[in-house]
Write a structure and sequence with these properties.
By secondary structure, this protein is an alpha/beta fold. The protein is about 40% helix and about 20% strand. An eight-stranded mixed β-sheet has the order 1-2-4-3-5-6-7-8, sandwiched between helices. Strand 5 (about 90-95), helix 3 (about 95-105) and strand 6 form a beta-alpha-beta unit. The longest helix has 18 residues, at about 70-85. The two termini are about 25 Å apart.
């Protein structure tokens, strides 16, 4: 594990591989950590990978920010710091991580070669049931997210249990901040400003950010491909890693032919 210091805090990340082509910076979702991307590190013979812990998650220092634009800006700072330190020029974000990636692409002066938007959307509204559970009963929130076709479609039980443990370790306060930040996110009117090749990739059964959300991205970003991962839900990169990595590799080969 490595760390980069910026804005008075340390952000942890793990880098792998010496493959050709652009480095890919992977950004986890709400209540997650860099560990959600470990199956993508196995593809590091084809391209360089770096996965970070956003502020307050995993091994990274926290920030004292209100949910919403302030927290999203802090997370974007985390990503830019890690990407700059590692030379990554493609961002791959899941859920909240996709919102962070879009914020970097739209509002940060950092040169990108591509954008992968996985299990995410131009808006990320959260149901009142989940918001209430996050405020009052964290175990109920975790149960809600692990019902069928939310985080997983048909994952092995050990994957589900590992996901539950990781969310508990992240904690209620940070996880609620993440989801409330998602709830305020809306870049529908700005998608035409995205100026890099993009890929919108979604699990076939994702009920949290369904395929229609990704079709919307593909329709409104000028250069955006659309891909569906069969037999997967929100965490397709964990549930069907071979298919996810194949879609990612195909996209990277177009962005950078040496990848």
């Amino acid at each position: 594990m490595q760390r980069v210091t910026h804005h008075g805090r340390g952000t942890a990340y793990r880098a792998s591989g010496r493959g050709g082509g652009p480095g890919v910076c992977f950004i986890h979702g709400s209540g997650g950590t860099k560990g959600v991307w470990k199956a993508q590190a196995r593809a590091s013979d084809r391209f360089r990978t770096v996965a970070l812990d956003l502020s307050g998650h995993g091994d990274s220092d926290d920030v004292d920010t209100a949910a919403g634009t302030e927290t999203l800006a802090a997370y974007a700072d985390d990503v830019v710091a890690v990407a700059a330190a590692t030379g990554a020029t493609v961002l791959c974000g899941n859920s909240l991580g996709g919102a962070v990636a879009l914020r970097v692409a739209l509002d940060r002066d950092y040169a990108l070669d591509g954008l992968v938007l996985a299990g995410t959307g131009a808006t990320l509204g959260v149901t009142p049931e989940l918001l209430d559970a996050l405020s009052t009963d964290f175990d109920r929130a975790i149960d809600y997210l692990h019902e069928p076709d939310r985080l997983f479609h048909d994952a092995p039980p050990e994957y589900v249990e590992r996901s539950r443990i990781a969310m508990r370790e992240c904690g209620r306060e940070v996880t609620e901040r993440d989801f409330r930040t998602c709830h305020t996110f809306d870049v529908r009117e700005r998608l035409g400003e995205v100026a890099v090749p993009s890929l919108a990739v979604v699990g076939e059964h994702d009920a949290l950010t369904p395929p229609a959300s990704h079709e919307y991205l593909a329709d409104r970003i000028d250069d955006c491909e659309y891909a569906v991962i069969d037999a997967a839900a929100h965490l397709a990169m964990l549930e069907r890693p071979a298919a996810f990595n194949a879609a990612l590799s195909t996209f990277l080969a177009r962005v950078h032919p040496s990848a």
